[in-house]
Amino acid sequence: MKNGRATFVKALALWLIFATSAVTVVTWHNPKMRAVLGMAWGVILLWIGIGGPLMYRFREPIRSVILPVRLDWRLKFILFATLLALIEEAITTTMTNLAPLFGVRVGEAYITASTNYLDVVALHSVVVFVPLFVGWALILWRYAFSPFAVFLLFGLTGTVMETNFGTKNPLEFGFWIFVYGLMVFLPAFCVPAERETRPLRWWHYPLAVFVPFLFIPIVPLPLLAALLFPHHPKIHFPPIGN
Q1: Vertex 155 angle, CA 149 and 159, to 5°
Q2: Does residue 184 sit within a domain?
Q3: CA 214 to chain centre
Q4: Which of 27, 106, 108, 149 supports an S-S bond with 33, CB 3.0-4.6 Å?
Q5: What is the pLDDT of residue 240?
Q6: Global confidence as pTM
Q7: Considering only CA atoms, which of 86, 94, 106, 71 is closest in space to residue 190?
Q8: How wide is the angle at C-alpha 233 spanned by C-alphas 229 and 234, nearest 5°?
Q9: Could you tell me the CA-to-CA distances from 212 to 44, 77, 158, 191 in Å, in that order?
Q10: Total domains present in the chain
Q11: SS3 breakdown of the chain: % helix, strand, coil, rounded to 5?
């Protein structure tokens, strides 16, 4: 099983490199899209290529630090996943601000809704992720999904969000599985194994991809942000044209 998971992750990484390289080649003539792909490669290098192996390499020492913390493990899961999401969004926002490094002006090409980090996390991205993390904390309270399963399933949840339920760039699934899956792998690894859970059935796996969406209206952070800033733009830049 362990070898199978390692093979899957390697295959997913190869697909990520192949798909992103193919899109880079196809769009190379377009300066703005070339810049967007340059930003994506930056995320691949920093979050996936460096961050991913570091999380896996130091998973045991990190768990030994997290487990003794005197907080409910569900709250620790949510806080830890939120921290990792904040780190990931710091990388993506930095890439957006580095637009001139990729040959375009700031706002001509971007991978976040704004160049302002607090605006991005509080009104666009992490504010939506937190309800999903709450959903997974409750799922893990009932069912003993492995950290690898949580990585993959939440990665698929992120893929569904980013591709508008498969209607936009579905071949980028490798990128999104890594981006989102790495937000929850370590938090899931730090969940106590001795908790009481119910037996897993095969249908729990596809359900776990979509059930977290139900927590977006239940956990009112996105609604609160919308009420406090009703006229806040979804994206602070003009559409990326040719």
Answers
A1: 145
A2: yes
A3: 18
A4: 27
A5: 87
A6: 0.95
A7: 71
A8: 110
A9: 25, 14, 10, 18
A10: 1
A11: 70, 0, 25
Total residue length of the chain = 242
- Please, which residues bridge with residue 143 across strands? 198
64, part of any domain: yes
Range of the domain at 190: 2-228
* Residue 210 in domain: yes
**Is residue 234 in a domain?**
no
Helix, coil or strand: residue 143? strand
CA distances from 162 to 67, 168, 174, 220 (A): 32, 8, 12, 21
Tell me the C-alpha distance between 81 and 237, whole Å: 28
Query: Could you tell me the two tokens for 101?
Result: 């490094």
State the amino acid at position 107 in one-letter form: G
Q: What are the mean pLDDT values of the chain's consecutive 10-residue runs (242 residues total)?
A: 88 97 95 96 98 98 96 98 99 98 95 96 96 98 97 97 72 95 98 92 97 93 89 91 65
**Cβ count within 10 A of residue 235:** 13
